[in-house]
Write a structure and sequence with these properties.
This protein is an alpha+beta fold. It folds into two domains: 31 residues; 117 residues, Lipocalin (Beta Barrel), CATH 2.40.128.120. The protein is built from two helices and eight strands. An eight-stranded antiparallel β-barrel has the order 1-2-3-4-5-6-7-8. It is elongated.
């Protein structure tokens, strides 16, 4: 097998061509090795200008399912008009892959609490990135009916 590989490389007349083939091969290995495991809990931080603040403890929980992932979002309800300011709102989330390393997440069903007077369903447009050997989800969130939007990023916590 080594003799075949060596003869194949010797057949290629240009050293630049050898370099390009090696680069393409390395890129192929890199790209196929990026299959992201999103399973677990992710904590969201909203970026306002140069500052990063924790935004009412937003969490996304990804659980593997036959269709990809089952996703729940949860956040503190203290900024929503509810009587119990310690309440945690939990939503079912529709999960979609939109191109390479891009996700579209849309809250569509309130699970709890059932006492909310106003529901602000949130959509997340996220890109999967890597920084410092960590996988991040970063992008924008939009709250329909509440007319709010901002940059947000999630880091895996569990």
């Amino acid at each position: 097998m080594q003799d075949r590989w060596a003869s194949f490389l010797n057949y290629i007349p240009f050293s630049k061509m050898k370099f390009v083939l090696l680069l393409l091969f390395a890129n192929l290995i890199y790209e196929t090795g990026l299959g992201q495991d999103l399973s677990g809990r992710w904590k969201g931080t909203m970026a306002l200008g140069d500052k990063k603040i924790t935004f009412s403890n937003v969490y996304l929980t990804f659980t593997p399912s036959p269709d990809g992932y089952s996703v729940l979002s949860s956040r503190n309800a203290r900024y929503i008009n509810v009587s119990d300011t310690s309440a945690i709102t939990v939503f079912n989330v529709k999960f979609q892959v939109k191109g390479k390393n891009r996700l579209l997440l849309d809250e569509f069903n309130l699970i709890s609490p059932d006492t909310l007077k106003k529901i602000c369903f949130t959509s997340y447009r996220l890109k999967i990135t890597k920084a410092h050997n960590q996988t991040l989800l970063e992008g924008r969130f939009f709250q329909r009916a509440c007319s709010e939007a901002a940059n947000i990023f999630f880091i895996k916590v569990d």
